């Protein structure tokens, strides 16, 4: 069965520090992997996605994630946090192809301290 | 593109009343998803459609909830009768063939049942 685990429901960093949000998955076939961001009182917005090819994926707002099959991970990073990065981040997967739904993790709320 | 459109953005109603939430997907998208988000349960998939046909409604909480998609550009989620525990933010999302399984979310409807 497919599943997504996000380690840490809350992460706090200082402005300018590295952001690392962890996501591990379980899938019996190669997955498509996604990171979404949700700002307060808004819908989810796609940050980046991995389908096939290059395992290091760059997204919007300076975020990137690396697909590591051997570790079944897809961690999200940003070298230097900005106050505007404070939001909730969701990791998700599906099998690609005709599978309709995404399997979401429970989310990680990122706080950025001045 | 206007993105996914949801109405109303906020709904306050009293227990026992019927509530109808509306969604207009992105033009050309053939998948439509309804989600519910609460603090306690996080993001839950309620139902999704492909080409206007319900594919998986296993997430619909109970018979009080129903969803329809009469055509490719409109869907409704109805709760009858509503209860205080239905208070949540309801999101609609859509996905197209060319989007490599990426779902695009609407801004959500915040429902409060008193």
Summarize the structure.
The complex is a heterodimer of chains A (114) and B (114). In chain A, 0% of the residues lie in helices and 54% in strands.
Explain this structure to me?
The complex is a heterodimer of chains A (114) and B (114). With 114 residues, chain A is an all-beta fold. Helix content of chain A is 0%, strand content 54%. Chain A has strands at 3-7, 10-14, 19-26, 32-38, 44-50, 56-58, 64-68, 73-78, 87-94, 103-104, 108-113. In chain A, strand 4 and strand 5 form a beta hairpin. Chain A is globular. The mean pLDDT of chain A is 92. The radius of gyration of chain B is 13 Å and the shape is globular. Chain B has strands at residues 5-7, 10-13, 19-24, 31-38, 42-50, 53-56, 65-71, 74-79, 88-95, 104-105, 109-113. Chain B has no helices and 11 strands. The mean pLDDT of chain B is 94. With 114 residues, chain B is mainly β. In chain B, strands 2, 4, 5, 6, 9, 10 and 11 form a 7-stranded mixed beta sheet that branches. In chain B, strands 1-3-8-7 form a 4-stranded antiparallel beta sheet, with no helix packed on it. The N and C termini of chain B lie far apart (36 Å). At the A-B interface, strand 4 and strand 5 of A face strand 5, strand 9 and strand 10 of B.
Tag the structure with descriptive keywords:
heterodimer; A: mainly beta; 6-stranded mixed β-sheet; 5-stranded antiparallel β-sheet; 11 strands; B: 114 residues; mainly beta; 7-stranded mixed β-sheet; 4-stranded antiparallel β-sheet
